[in-house]
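Changelog-adjacent note: as of this version, every example in the card shows the full chain rather than a window. The one below runs 170 residues end to end.
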Amino acid sequence: MKYSKPLLLLIMILPWFTIPLFGERPFKRFLPSGVFISLLVRIVNIIAKKRKWWWWYETIHPKLSGVFPFMLGPFLVGSLWILKWTYGKFFRFMMLNFLFDSFFTYIVVPYLTKFGIVSLVRMKKIQLMYVFTVLSLLLYIFQWLKENINRLLIRFQTIKRFTLREDPKV
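Full-length structure tokens:
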């Protein structure tokens, strides 16, 4: 369609206008998880292309996949916001992800199909929801591991310092 490339650019750029409201500390805290989920979305898209789960008709550049505007826009920034609002409250995290993923699957995807950007081929909408649910779980697990590994490393360093200070003349 005539306006599909500008629409893809808007989809990619608009979420970034919310980042000044995010705060520097939470941005640094959750950015690695946002990058992680974006990379996972890219990997899932490679698998989807091979298995013909969906098809991208329009891209912002011929050498880029159509998933890039979504990967760098709503998935990355949306994951940051969802983690900021809900991290530490797993049920709330899953519910909010479910609401956003449902909105994308059942409302946004039909419009994207109508505008000739993407369409589901060998995947039903409920299966897409399963993919999004697994991605949400992986996002939460990644953030949990990131924060707990940091805590474990800090404890280890503290123990190491404590044992080095002891007098070996006992």
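Structural remarks: The mean pLDDT is 91.
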